[in-house]
Amino acid sequence: MTNQEIKKMLREPTPKERIKFRVGYTNRAGNKACMLAYVDARYVQDRLDDVVGADNWNADYEYSGTSSLFCTITVHWPDGKRTKKTDVGVETDVEKEKGQASDAFKRAAVHYGIGRDLYGLGDYWADCNDGGYVDKNWTPPGWLTNVITKEVNTITPSSHPEPPTLGPGDPGDENIPPHNVQEFAKEVTERAAEKAPDTALKEETPPEKELVMVSNLEKARETDKAILYIPGSFAGDKNDSEQTKHFWLAKSLIVKEEQLMNGRAKVQMQRWAAESPLPDGSPRYMIDDDVPF
């Protein structure tokens, strides 16, 4: 088997029977939960063993600073070359060290293509029971219908209510003029408060961190209530307020900001704010730890 053949196999879609779901967030009424797809570390191990070979890969862990745990997966290829892919893990609410190691391992595996297809799944919404919970083993209706071992079917999201949106990105707000930056920022914060979902975690689902990290942001403007963070993927005119207005973020949604060496910012914020869709349906920001595991 050649290097290219192995790379192609690692990027193959994840079998539906190995995909699990967890609560991302609930709507304001608390009767619907947006479910996120993920796989466990054992699936990643199985995938590496089956495709690369159990003796042709290894994982190493190293702490950086006081709490950041990095995992490096080394693959030995048929032509004798070696590659290393590294990523950092985030502590979970349960078994923090074990969860952080597993998280780092799975994030590193995504660099090889394992589980990367889960990024492309749409939103799935589950009904919450009277206690506000979702069954631990929930799957979308008909999820495993006609699934054949080793065969992956096309995954089509079921119909669902619209997730919460934030601020000037709301439908119908495309023409709001930023008549005054301070006033415009006030509108952002007011809408953020109105649209904020109920993010309480559900006891019957795997722990889900509601705070996420977003990197490579340009801090373009700031008021006493909001900050304009322009993502690195932005290809429009940064001086055009109509084009950038969707990227204002209320300060109440920001936990911390770190300045990077390249002059850009790394920001920890509430997940729903980062995922709030733009008018074209794409998420506002690309989340660093938005790996579906």
Question: What does this 3D model show about the protein?
Answer:
- With 293 residues, the protein is of the alpha+beta class.
- It has two domains: 3-127, 2-Layer Sandwich (Enolase-like, domain 1); 167-275, no CATH class.
- The protein is 20% helix and 26% strand.
- The protein contains six helices and eleven strands.
- It has helices at residues 3-10, 41-51, 96-110, 181-195, 241-244, 271-275; strands at residues 20-26, 32-38, 57-64, 68-76, 82-89, 124-127, 211-222, 226-231, 248-250, 254-259, 265-270.
- A hairpin with a 5-residue loop joins strand 1 (20-26) and strand 2.
- The radius of gyration is 21 Å and the shape is globular.
Neighbour order of strands in the largest sheet: 9-8-7-11-10
Judging from the principal axes of the Cα atoms, what is the shape?
globular
Number of folding domains? 2
Q: What's the total helix number?
A: 6
Beta-strand residue fraction:
25-35%
Order of helices and strands: HEEHEEEHEHEEHEEEH
What CATH calls the topology of the largest domain is: Enolase-like, domain 1
Query: On the 0-100 scale, what is the average pLDDT?
Result: 77
Strand count? 11
The class by helix and strand makeup works out as: alpha+beta
> Which value, in Å, is the CA radius of gyration?
21 Å
CATH architectural label of the largest domain: 2-Layer Sandwich
Structure, briefly:
This protein has 293 residues and is of the alpha+beta class.
Q: Which SSEs are present, and which pair or pack?
A:
Elements: H1 3-10, E1 20-26, E2 32-38, H2 41-51, E3 57-64, E4 68-76, E5 82-89, H3 96-110, E6 124-127, H4 181-195, E7 211-222, E8 226-231, H5 241-244, E9 248-250, E10 254-259, E11 265-270, H6 271-275
Antiparallel strand pairs: 1-2, 2-6, 3-4, 4-5, 7-8, 7-11, 8-9, 10-11
